[in-house]
Amino acid sequence: DLQLDIAKPSDTDPKWIEKAEHFEFKQRLDHFNATDSRTFQQSYWVNRAYWDEATGPVVLYIGGQGSVNGSLIEPPEEIAQLAAQYKALLIALDHRHHALSSEENMQYVLSVQTLEDIKSFRNFYIEQEKIDSERHPWLSLDRSYRFYAGFVSARLRSKYPSVVNDSLADRALVDAKMDFSAYDDQVRQSLEAFSSTCAAAVRSSLELVDAYLSAARNLETVYSQFGCADSIEDPTAFAFVVVDAVSFAVQYTQTSTPDKFTYKLRDQFCNNITVSPTMETLGQFVRWLHSGMGATCRQQSIESVIDTLVRTPNTPLAVPLIAPPPVASPSYQPIVSLDQWKEEMLNKHSQQQQQQQ
Asked: Does 164 have pLDDT greater than 90?
């Protein structure tokens, strides 16, 4: 039973100022094609500061949406506390999509390939470092907000129990639902618990947006207020962008800038929307959020998922499953397969293209 209950040692302790080292591993591009010998360089970081080389475990941090780096396995991260407590070797393995970002490589950015990556890397590292897996058990884990990595950690243990002795999967995504409206309901409950006044202001602002979208009037003007005029056309995709921005403010209640200044995102958002519960205030927040992300409205919408599926129609789903916006979805839909979901998305895109013609 892992308990992160130790106190942080002094900053002058050498073990707490030691930095993780960066390495690269030659990884296979396609683990399922024996005739394909292509490879890519996969990054990983190692922190040996706490390791008991006689019996200490190996903790493998699995990368997900965000690129990993050495700081993720250094103090003050909880994983460093875990390593200090259990005298563990820390390894952080980057996800393949950070090395295979081009469109032609999308077909290889799949969870099944990721599992093979980890298996291959683990075998390589054991052989290179002469690690006795009987004396040094392996644990895979993800960071608490990396939902996809949580799924990989859980699936790794279930598919390859000989690769890791145990896995920690916090908030892992394991069921694909066509309509995951429970998430939106949780956002609403969390916002109301924080401030009923803020929740009412957000509801009022969203109703204004919905009224414009339902009436289908002055849509370009509405899109412009949110910085979306040049990148999005579909009202449903636009609604997703707006609701997703609100959800972001609630879920990630605070964020940090590169200089470590903590910005209380939810608090500031609520302060502004409560004073002025209008579309203009909501639009200002969406523009600010996208500017900080360096993203367009289309990149943040469900249309980006459809774009990817259209470009790679003959490959399995290679992107995270994104739920539709919570409009006209009163109840749960049955769990569907990713292939079925993909087919429905492609059919929807085809219908939109025909309507435009």
From this structure: yes
Instruction: Reply yes or no on whether the pLDDT at 329 is more than 50.
Output: no
Coil/strand/helix, residue 138: strand
- Prior bond of 137 cis (ω within 30°): no
* 39-47/21-28 β-pairing: antiparallel
For residues 2 and 119, give the distance between their C-alpha atoms in angstroms, rounded to a whole number: 24
Give CA angle at 348 (344, 352), nearest 5°: 170
pLDDT higher than 70, residue 269: yes
β-pairing verdict for 58-62 and 89-93: parallel
79 sits in which H/E element: helix 78-86
Matching residue, tokens 């900080």 = 292
SS3 content of the chain, % helix, strand, coil (to 5): 50, 10, 40
Query: Residue 8 pLDDT more than 70?
Result: no
In this structure, is the dihedral angle defined by the CA atoms of residues 227, 285, 170 and 95, taken in order, positive or negative?
Answer: positive
Q: E strand or H helix at 25, and its extent?
A: strand 21-28
For 29-88, list the strands marked E by DSSP. Answer: 39-47, 58-62
User: Over the Cα atoms of the chain, what is R_g?
Assistant: 23
Q: Rounded CA gap, 55 and 131, in Å?
A: 10
Return the H-helix or E-strand segment holding 149. helix 147-159
**Residue 269 and residue 285 in contact, taking contact as beta carbons nearer than 8 Å:** yes
